[in-house]
Amino acid sequence: MKSKLTFWKVVFVILMAAGIYATFVRFTRGLGPTTNLTDQFPWGIWVGFDVLCGVMLAAGGFTLTAAVHIFNLKRLQPIVRPTVLTAFLGYLLVSVALMFDLGRPYRIWHPLIMRNPHSVMFEVAYCVMLYTTVLALEFSPIVLERFHLHRAMKIIHGAVIPLVIIGVLLSTLHQSSLGSLYLIMPEKLHPFWYSPLLPVFFFISAIAVGLAMTIFESSLSSKYFGRELEIGILRELGRVLAVVLCVYAVLRFEDLFHRGVLGKMLQPSYEMTLVWLELALALIVPLALLSVPKIRNSANGLYVAAVMVLLGFITNRLNVSITGLESSAGVHYIPRWTELAITVAITASGLAVFSLAVKYLPIFPVPEARTVPSTREAVIPVPVLDNAGD
After folding, report:
1. Of the candidates 376, 338, 353, which has an alpha carbon nearest to the alpha carbon of residue 17?
2. Average pLDDT over the chain, rounded to whole?
3. Cβ distance 127 to 177 under 8 Å?
4. If we measure between CA atoms, which residue out of 204, 42, 184, 188 comes closest to residue 120?
5. Are 199 and 180 contacting, i.e. CB atoms less than 8 angstroms apart?
6. For the chain, is the Cβ count within 10 Å smaller at the N or the C terminus?
7. Rg of the chain taking only CA atoms, in angstroms
8. What's the gap between Cα 239 and its chain centre?
9. How many CA atoms lie within 13 A of 80 on its CB side?
10. What is the DSSP string of 86-152?
């Protein structure tokens, strides 16, 4: 059967063509002709979005697997597989993005043998490598099930709990350590975003984004893959999300207050505009929506709140990694089109792989059949969705 040409397929081909051209320029001519990075401003969108946001957006993997396998919340089981797939793809794409940002990408393996346990970046590199391996093992039963390798599946299932515990520990370490990377630059990072609590903020926001990403992914999967929406589960995630956002909001306010920065947030500036945009998207609007029971219990309300949270904390990561460093560097960084083309192509390829995985792998369980006796005691098969539909 021939595949139907659609508008989005045409857009995908155009984006990938631009990304392939930009990739060719990057690896044949180097960082200079491909980016607007300089010695004064060496980290741009490939670090701010592809790495910091990419790792954050994949945080649903450790939050959901911990809830199901460690805290035994089996009612969340139906959304674990697509969440693990999202996390696994997220970390793979982060690794791909790092290959573009590194000046000598062929040396990406050096941390394996050139260890520096006193370096935060070394700890992040090791944790990301190890956690990607853990995600591959957590995802492997889906592939093994597709090819009916039941013996291997049994072995992996027997190691699920240790894998989940290791994954949670590794995620906790590197999610917070990404914030620790910026603790060494108190004079360079703007006071709106520099804080001794940056590791705590990065970790708590990762949990919030993991929950929001699960709601977002489940809603889109229901719409585009024809799956039943697990609205009961999403409502529960929405309530937890509201609590996590409240904790983050209190800590953020206390931090700004004790550092004497609140007054500067009323002084018009480029940074003031972006910090208020971040707070409005990540905290003010989502908490206002989730505080209304009618909105919190509706599929559309949860979806909108989740999108706001995602946009808000993406803005936060970009503010920390880009906006907060522009003033001290004396530059206003705007990514070159080739930088954007590579970032968009990586994101588009992730969406395409997710779609293919849903099509060819048992990401969503197949409907089962149950038997119901008729008035003549006959047994008639009646197809129903089990509790694992999404």
Report:
1. 338
2. 90
3. yes
4. 184
5. yes
6. N
7. 22
8. 20
9. 24
10. HHHHHHHHHHHHHHHHSSSGGGTTGGGTS--TT-HHHHHHHHHHHHHHHHHHHHHHHHHHHTT-HHH
Nearest-CA neighbor of 205 among 217, 213, 196, 194?
A: 213
Residue partners of 364: CB distance under 8 A and separation at least 6? 81, 82, 221, 225, 227, 358, 388, 389, 390
The helix (H) or strand (E) run that includes residue 372 is: strand 368-373
Mean pLDDT in residue range 136-158? 92
Please tell me the pTM assigned to this model: 0.90
Identify residue 28 by its one-letter amino acid code: T
**CB-based contacts of 69: which residues, under 8 Å, 6+ apart?**
160, 161, 164
CB neighbour burial string for 184-207, b if at least 16 within 10 angstroms, e if fewer: eeeeebbbbbbbebbbbbbbbbbb
**What gap in Å lies between CA 270 and CA 274, rounded to an integer?**
7
- With tokens 């697997």, the residue in question is 65
What are phi and psi for residue 117, nearest 5 degrees?
Answer: -65, -10
Please report the pLDDT score of residue 378 as a whole number: 42
Judge contact between 295 and 226, C-beta under 8 A: no
Percent of residues in the chain assigned helix, strand, coil, to nearest 5: 70, 5, 25
Strands 379-384 and 368-373: antiparallel
